[in-house]
Amino acid sequence: MPKIFRALGAMSGTSMDGIDLALLETDGRGLLKFGPTASFAFSDADRALLRAAVAAARNLNRRDERPGPLAEAESLITQRHLEAVATFLRDEDISPAAIDLIGFHGQTVLHRPEQGLTVQLGDGALFARRAGIDVVYDMRAADLERGGQGAPLVPVYHAALAESCGFGAPMLFVNIGGVANVTFCAPGAAPLACDVGPGNALLDDLMLARAGRAMDADGAAARAGRVDEAALAALLAHPWFARKPPKSLDRNAFDPAPVAGLSLEDAAATLCAFTAAGIVSADAFVPAPPQMIVLCGGGARNPALVEAISARAPCPVRRAENFGWDSQAIEAQAFAYLAARSAKGLPLTFPGTTGVREPATGGKLAWAG
Ligand SMILES: Nc1ncnc2c1ncn2[C@@H]1O[C@H](COP(=O)(O)OP(=O)(O)OP(=O)(O)O)[C@@H](O)[C@H]1O
Ligand SMILES: CC(=O)N[C@H]1[C@@H]2OC[C@@H](O2)[C@@H](O)[C@@H]1O[C@H](C)C(=O)O
């Protein structure tokens, strides 16, 4: 009988909007039994500290350095995760002893795979001791050490979802977080994946800078604006789009200067179109046309973005909810799944997902004590 883990995935992504938690019972292979999920938003003060940490991280040369606001931001991330897990377990009436593992992503503040550098804030050992639950963390480092990009990590979970739904034809999972990444899943084949371009980060940054809001809620600004084709062409001229996978992105890889002179609405519409065009450009790298695009991540909740993707896509576009999945929880579930795989020594990444030399496991295990 294979060991079945009751694992709690914890994701705080590059959008810096908060922490998603999801419980998953899994053998780390095909068995996926979904449990409760919850989201915990960061306060404005938390976000400001995380933004300062991302800015300070630009000067890092080593992944264990924590100058300036980085040390405080790391404490904040660990503390907010402890609070989130405590609240979640209390609300769901689950004892820590009933959880086998936490899969802890941490907060990415820098991602420069070409320099072998990816930095996720969060103290896995402290998290495990205080939560009283074993924690698997630092899941990107081993991949980078073996020649991979260290991202994306979620594809192995997308592949498990694709397998479980029995669609029977190639599907393209599109995860729209701060950055957008895709996984091409064809029945019986190993997943192919890469980051494709911006997700929500440019749009979130625009809204914060010009309207003092964290996001373009329900795509209202973008829907009121018009795409500026010249600005869009300038954005899409970035050499990133011609590069072949494997490839992965830092949150701040793109310069939004081409939309600086546009009205808020036109800038939002143009950035939406930019994200959509980046996603659809993944078409050039897949071995067969996908028959279905499945949208997940927070960007799937932005109707302006969904419309922009649907208008450009070569096949039907559906939200994860159409398949009975929870688009907001998929990343957190993925980190629960990855933690179970890590504990079993199974690969997290593959040559076709990160460019790692051979399928590689990863993650560090911190004992509860
Ligand atoms: N109702 C909504 N309307 C518009 N945008 C939304 C809505 N809900 C969520 N979003 C967008 O989704 C973002 C959060 O996405 P998500 O939680 O997937 O990001 P993340 O976990 O940081 O991802 P990643 O690590 O993949 O970058 C928000 O910052 C916002 O841009
Ligand atoms: C380095 C890093 O944290 N990358 C994130 C980011 O957000 C989306 C995309 O860029 C993806 O590469 C990754 O997140 C998801 C969870 C992943 O690794 O699959």
TrEMBL record:
InterPro entries: Anhydro_N_Ac-Mur_kinase (IPR005338), ATPase_NBD (IPR043129). GO terms for biological process: 1,6-anhydro-N-acetyl-beta-muramic acid catabolic process; amino sugar metabolic process; peptidoglycan turnover. Pathway: Cell wall biogenesis; peptidoglycan recycling; Amino-sugar metabolism; 1,6-anhydro-N-acetylmuramate degradation. Its EC number is 2.7.1.170. ATP binds at G13, T14, S15, M16, D17, G18, I19, D20. Gene3D superfamilies: 3.30.420.40. It catalyses: 1,6-anhydro-N-acetyl-beta-muramate + ATP + H2O = N-acetyl-D-muramate 6-phosphate + ADP + H(+). It is an enzyme of class 2 (transferase). Keywords: ATP-binding, Carbohydrate metabolism, Kinase, Nucleotide-binding, Transferase. GO terms for molecular function: ATP binding; kinase activity; phosphotransferase activity, alcohol group as acceptor. Catalyzes the specific phosphorylation of 1,6-anhydro-N-acetylmuramic acid (anhMurNAc) with the simultaneous cleavage of the 1,6-anhydro ring, generating MurNAc-6-P. Is required for the utilization of anhMurNAc either imported from the medium or derived from its own cell wall murein, and thus plays a role in cell wall recycling. HAMAP family: AnhMurNAc_kinase. Belongs to the anhydro-N-acetylmuramic acid kinase family. This is Anhydro-N-acetylmuramic acid kinase. It comes from Rhodoblastus sphagnicola. The gene is anmK.
